[in-house]
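=== RUN LOG ===
request id: a7f3
mode: sequence -> structure
chains: 1
length: 382
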Amino acid sequence: MTAGKRVLHRGAPEELRPAEDEQLHPGTVSWSLLAATEQPIAVLGATGYTGSLVCEQLRELGLPVRLLGRRREELEQRAQSDEEIAVADVTDWDSLAEALQGAFAVISTAGPFLQRGFATVDAAITCGVHYLDSSTEQAYSRQIYERFGGRAAEAGIVLLTAFANAPGDFAAGIAADGLEGPLEDVVVATEQSGFVFSRGSRETLAQVLEQPQAAWEDGRLVPSRFGSTTKRVRFPSGEHTVVEWGGPEPLTVPRHVEVRRVRAYVKAPRVAAATGKLASRLAPLVRLSARVGRPGPPPAKRRKSTCSIVAEATGPGGGRRATLIGRDVYGVAALVLARGVQALRDGEARAAGALAPAEAFEPRAFVTRLGPLVQLESLVDL
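=== RESULT ===
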């Protein structure tokens, strides 16, 4: 073991272990007399592609890091001399509870999440630890809001699921702010250029292709699918066709905006919409691709990737378009997660429970903190 690294090896206390029916009592557990500024941020999946970037961002912000993963040797190689490590398996509640002891928050990058993410959320609430994740699985995030939000609120814990994708929800909040309501539509569309999937992201994509998808319609979530609808949206690069996909915004935007319809879109040729009915058949091929190639794009290529996020909000009094632009897509995800936990440590969360990004934090102020990787490019009336 590398000298200087603190290895956690305490067993999970008996009173923290879940009952047979997994119905745990809500409540915040006080693990330490240390102030929040002294408590480490646990990163689950710290040796993975996204997890490593999250650790880098936390260090740049001066936040203490605890690396969590399945293989001790890899954790020891990745951790800096003054950082803690803990072996934890996302399928083993006891190991997660042990690894989270004394932490301020856990950032989970260990997907696919619908398959193996719930034990981490459960352990975090029980241990009194805030929770953020990098999930792009709408079906998973929906269950976080519906199954865990009440317990987290009672415990005074904040759950920020799909927070790596928070810029879309922040853009929607900025676009909707001040418009006469209730609004008719909020559309959030994403354009990416030069983006290369990591192996972990390809594995998650295979899962997403097989998962149910929802849109917000007439005040409720309704079944949808990839390519169910298409639109034309104006990006900084011009007007392009976008196809519906399972982004988090149909779950998040109605939590802070009174609106009739919310759908998420991604730039793609109109013909791509026709593949929606075949998505589940494509999943095995995508899953196979996740077993080969690099873990992720090399740094130089990663930094060249760009993204634009457009949110259009329309209502009885008119509409508005907010456009965010960013560079280094994976770097943005890591920065958003790190800034999110920093805002929690600074006491900026506006409530407890499972929260949408713009429900937890003031959108404009948070986006400002994402510079220079992300900026508000424009805000125009429609």
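=== NOTES ===
Confidence is low (pLDDT under 50) at residues 9-15, 17-35, 283-290.
The chain has two domains: 6-163, 165-328+364-381.
=== END ===
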